[in-house]
Automatic annotation (TrEMBL):
Keyword ATP-binding: yes
Gene3D superfamilies associated with the record: P-loop containing nucleotide triphosphate hydrolases (3.40.50.300)
InterPro entries to which the protein is assigned, alphabetical: AAA+_ATPase (IPR003593), ABC_transp_ATP-bind (IPR050319), ABC_transporter-like_ATP-bd (IPR003439), ABC_transporter-like_CS (IPR017871), Oligopep_ABC_C (IPR013563), P-loop_NTPase (IPR027417)
SMART domains named among the record's database cross-references: AAA (SM00382)
Name of the protein described by the UniProt record: Oligopeptide ABC transporter ATP-binding protein
Keyword field: ATP-binding, Nucleotide-binding, Transport
The encoding gene: oppF
GO BP annotations, alphabetical order: peptide transport; transmembrane transport
GO terms for MF: ATP binding; ATP hydrolysis activity
Length: 721
């Protein structure tokens, strides 16, 4: 997946998901799509009707809302929002809970089933032989079918978890490069925790697969030889043996779920917001640290014990007194007044009466005594010294607010006084300490949102994006207003973006054009009227699409289909967009004029360095016009590569079926042509076990395949080469 992402890509689509709702049901029109499109290329989106290609196109333009994912142009977000690691991890947590509930339900159901089977065995001891059909009624095979369905459902949940985990890894990997405020250690910790969850989830998946295969065998065998007679004990013995395997593996599954939940909870907490993390931090503090309140109280207790003892404890008493005197806590330090003193020095408006009043309220810690000396001696502070004091005070306040002693020496002292034994290895202690450090960092989602790359779209930026991304529609007749003249239609965009004709750049261009074609020259752009520049831009645009100036006064119904589409193209071009989305722009046109419209796209691609997203289902047209093609099926990109490569070497079965459907104009060849029928259930029968991924099968040739399909393709290539 990493190779699919291009560092120099102009338009980046990341994890795009669009869901439609109808009568309480959800329909996923676009499914976790990731595409990179280069500047100045014509990128083709191909698929049958209802595949989701137009939905993707509309989302790029901004007229279709996104349920998930984001779209970036020049590394700035233009639609959607950046992934929230906390939401993704929370989603995994919920799915794990759902999975756990299903497993516990099956466990309970299995227990009842075995009890019923034992009762059946006891009640039917006299039966020696039985017809299989009667046996299935006796044991109630529907119960086993239900268990089989539950395990299949559970397997699908695990597959969904694996997909979300992969998305998290893709997002977190090297995120410190894009968001420098995220420490490398935090990124590595997130990846390490994710790896731990992945490993246990993979183990769980293997267990569920084994159980599902076992129950499926029971169900499949129950459909064969229904009229055949068997020994009753043999049938029951085989069934008990198979169910024993299911029960054993199911029990192992439950223990693995608990491990996965514990690691995943830490993962979720690591990506949570600060409010959630602060609630959970005390639980982890107790494992390795000591409460500041408890520590200072115990210091006082120890001092009372030692004060009446021999002179040998003088050193210890001195140390305890120092701890009590210089201990940072709410009761032992006035940190708020420290900040007030520092802020007065920062403001440069020194009021010593106010400073002396504040200093008198400070306690006897070293930091406070230092500030008191500065005030009493009327010492002046430089800007760098003030900043140092602010940093120290901020650090002290953070420790006071956390209310925890972290110093190993002090923690060991406290445990020694209280005779507490910590039952943790050095490695476990270090892991917890490191985990606490990461929990104390700002929320990773917060840091991501603050980054310019992931900053949400402002209203002003949204308006600019609408200008930069224009759309050409499928039906030129319905996309043009019959009550507006061509002049009004093409100039409509300029009404909303007046800078395009009011700018000095536009006026200079008009002045050059005017001076070239007229004897009375314009020497000062200030004399140029805005309406003249606007008229010039409309005139220039209509000429560029092959129409005449006299057409401006006419109305859409006076033109042919091809001419109407040219008007639609002109309407898009006048705004100087960076991207044009062409949604099947020639499907409603006669064959004779399709090539003319396609040639216009090629022309503007070269002249204006425009990026086109060309949506179509006619592969022969797409091959002619596009640089790269993405094939989409039911909202999922199944193949993507250069146009010629797709026709020479189609990899995905759906792509093969699309290519085989292209009409052959030569009758003799058409009669011998064999169509490839795409049957997803047969082609991808093992997707529930072996998940597909969008991988680079050949250089710059990506396909949505699982490991089995990749091996089969490589084997085929070896034979054919």
């Amino acid at each position: 997946m990493a190779n699919l992402k291009r560092n120099n890509a102009f338009l980046k689509i990341r994890d795009l998901s669009i869901v439609f709702r109808n009568k309480g049901k959800k329909f996923k029109a676009v499914n976790d799509t990731t595409i990179d499109i280069n500047r100045g290329e014509i990128f083709g989106l191909v698929g049958e009707s209802g595949s989701g290609k137009t939905t993707i196109a509309r989302s790029i333009v901004g007229v279709q809302g996104l349920n998930d994912g984001a779209i970036y142009m020049n590394d700035i977000i233009i639609a959607g929002r950046s992934a929230s690691l906390y939401k993704l991890n929370t989603s995994i947590t919920y799915k794990l809970k759902d999975f756990e509930n299903k497993v516990y339900s099956v466990t309970k159901y299995l227990r009842y089933l075995l009890t019923d089977l034992k009762k059946t065995y006891t009640d039917s001891k006299s039966i020696e032989t039985i017809i299989k059909k009667d046996f299935l009624k006796k044991i109630n095979i529907d119960k086993i079918i239900f268990i089989d369905d539950m395990y299949k459902y559970s397997l699908n949940i695990i597959n969904e978890i694996i997909k979300i985990q992969q998305r998290i890894i893709n997002f977190v990997k090297n995120i410190h490069i894009q968001v420098p405020k995220i420490p490398v250690e935090l990124e590595q910790s997130l990846l390490e925790k994710q790896k731990q969850v992945n490993e246990i989830i993979e183990e769980i998946k293997l267990k569920v697969e084994d159980i599902y295969i076992s129950t499926k065998k029971i169900v499949d065998k129950s459909k064969n030889d229904l009229e055949k007679t068997y020994k009753f004990k043999d049938l029951l013995s085989t069934l008990f043996k198979n169910l024993d395997f299911v029960v054993t593996n199911n029990n192992e599954l439950i223990s693995k779920i608990n491990v996965a939940k514990n690691i995943q909870n830490e993962n979720t907490l690591l990506t949570a917001n600060e409010r959630v993390k602060n609630k959970q931090l005390p639980k982890y503090y107790k494992k390795v640290y000591v409460s500041r309140k408890n520590f200072i109280e115990e210091c006082k207790n120890q001092l009372i014990k030692l004060s009446n003892s021999s002179l040998e404890n003088v050193k210890e008493i001195k140390l305890l007194n120092y701890y009590i005197k210089d201990f940072w806590s709410k009761s032992n330090m006035n940190i708020n007044y420290c900040f007030k003193i520092i802020n007065i020095y920062k403001s440069k408006n020194i009021d010593y009466v106010k400073l002396n009043n504040l200093a008198s309220k400070l306690f006897e810690t070293d930091f406070e005594n230092d500030l008191k000396n500065i005030v009493n001696n009327k010492k002046e502070l430089t800007d760098s010294e003030v900043e140092d004091y602010i940093k120290q005070a901020t650090y002290i306040k953070k420790i006071i607010d956390r209310d925890v002693v972290k110093d190993d020496e002090l923690v060991n002292k406290y445990n020694e006084w209280k005779n507490i034994k910590i039952d943790l290895s050095e490695e476990e202690k270090n892991n917890i300490t490191q985990f606490i450090e990461f929990l104390e960092l700002p929320s990773i989602d917060k840091l991501v949102k603050k980054s310019y790359i992931f900053k949400p779209v402002s209203r002003r930026a949204r308006k600019e994006n609408r200008r930069n991304i224009q759309m050409i529609f499928q039906d030129p007749s319905s996309s043009l207003n019959d009550r507006m003249s061509v002049d009004e239609i093409i100039g409509e965009g300029l009404v909303n973006y007046k800078d395009l004709y009011k700018s000095n750049e536009a006026k200079r261009e008009y002045m050059d054009y005017y001076n070239e074609n007229n004897n009375n020259k314009i020497t000062d752009i200030k004399t140029i009227k805005n309406k003249d520049v606007k008229k010039y831009l409309i005139l220039k645009t209509i000429k560029s699409v092959g129409l005449l100036p006299e057409h401006l006064s006419r109305y859409p119904h006076e033109f042919s289909g091809g001419q109407r589409q040219r008007i639609g193209i002109a309407r898009s071009l006048i705004l100087n967009p960076k991207i044009i989305v062409a949604d099947e722009p020639i499907s409603a046109l006669d064959v004779s004029i399709r090539a003319q419209v396609l040639n216009l796209f090629k022309k503007f691609q070269k002249e204006k360095d425009l990026t086109f997203i060309f949506v179509a289902h006619d592969l022969s047209v797409v091959r002619f016009i596009t640089d790269r093609i993405a094939v989409i099926y039911h909202g999922q990109i199944v193949e993507m590569c250069e146009a010629d490569e797709l026709f020479k070497n189609p990899i995905h079965p759906y792509t093969k079926s699309l290519l085989s459907a292209i009409p052959q104009p030569e009758p003799s060849l058409a009669r011998n042509k064999k169509s490839f029928v795409y049957n997803p259930d047969e082609e991808h029968h093992d997707y529930i076990f072996d998940l597909p991924n969008f991988v680079e099968v050949e250089k710059n040739h990506f396909a949505y395949l699982n490991d089995r399909e990749i091996k089969e393709y490589k084997k085929y290539r070896q034979i054919t080469n």
